[in-house]
Amino acid sequence: MIARRGQRHSQAVELLTDIGREVRTGVNLLSQLLGMPAADRRPLRDELIGLEGTAMDLHFNLMTHIRSVFLTPLPREDIYALSRLLNRTLEHVVAAGDLIIARESLTLPRQSSDQLETLGRQVDLTVDALARLDDFDHLEEYWIQIQRLTKQANRTHREWLTSSDSAFQPNIALQQAQIATAMLQAVESLRKVSTTAGSIIVRES
Fold first, then answer.
1. Residue from 57, 55, 60 nearest 86 by CA
2. Matching InterPro entries, A to Z (predicted)?
């Protein structure tokens, strides 16, 4: 059974928000990686990888919780979808960081910072939305903003790839493309989070 509006702030919402904060921490680590010398990056790898374990533990706690309570703030399948997509987003963030750490000699272009800024804005909007699942007007605005940011991220992705076409040897261009793709996959995962929120608005309002 679904809790009535006004009763949506629950442990499930808190756990979803906590997972979103783990994604934010991952983006912060990516920002640190981009801003430090390549030789100093490797110590952050364990911290980056550890985020996946923390987020998965939160996911398991969330699944246990929604199986054990009668009322949930959203349909259980929506809660599961949001949690799964947040964890998938973090997987892509970690993958991007892992690739950056592994390519010590790789110099990333300006588009990498631009893409990370867009991703960070998406994450902040998502964490705020997860904490306000009872506010459908806010969720609608969140959905709109995420769509716009995703379009912007796709443009940045194309610029990143085309900037490396003639500037690098083929193997270097491939390494750039792998990092760029991992970041874009994180962006697209957050768009799916917002799409799930959009379906909630349509069904529940």
1. 55
2. PhoU-like_sf, UPF0111_domain
